[in-house]
Amino acid sequence: MNWRAPLSVALLLGALLSGWAVWRQRDVAPVAPRANLRPDYVLNDFELVVLDRQGKEAFTLRAPRLERDPARKTMQIATPVFTLPPRDPAHTPWVVRARAGWVSADADELRLRGEVVASSRDAQDRPLRMESETLNVFPERDRADTRSQVVLTQPGLILTGRRGGEARLDTKRVTLHDVTARYARTAR
């Protein structure tokens, strides 16, 4: 048997298959370029006042760095400090700090992550402090919530919500889940 005939047929089939594959590829649409992953703007060492839909101050933000995502219109923030003004001028604002923050496109949701500390004063003008690893704040609704453990400290009392909690920012009313309480001596 002649070995050249089967080899010639195999080479001819390979050439035909290669030509067919190249011909099929010519009709494929070009791959769309990857979305621009760079922020459309960056702020360094800034203070920003954000207004709500009625034109009133929703919150003030101070941070060393902010990056805005051009596609989603959201903002990523390094070590933010948010000041949430009270609806009633007789009350004190909330000051919320974290290692990282995120602001929704409409600025109606703030997500704080890492060593979150929220502090204010209660109706009796006593210091009020909440600590957690995560906190979601909704400034227009005067609400905040977390599913992470939260520690609420007031003079003489430390409450721990092991399964998170919610806070009404306007009334300074905090609800914790799966609570333990510890009484602490108050300095005079």
Automatic annotation (TrEMBL):
Gene3D superfamilies in the record: Lipopolysaccharide (LPS) transport protein A like domain
GO MF annotation list: glycolipid transfer activity; lipopolysaccharide transmembrane transporter activity
One Pfam short name: LptC
Keywords tagged on the record: Cell inner membrane, Cell membrane, Membrane, Transmembrane, Transmembrane helix
One GO term describing the cellular component: plasma membrane
PANTHER family per UniProt: LIPOPOLYSACCHARIDE EXPORT SYSTEM PROTEIN LPTC
Official protein name in the record: Lipopolysaccharide export system protein LptC
Provenance organism: Vulcaniibacterium thermophilum
Gene: lptC
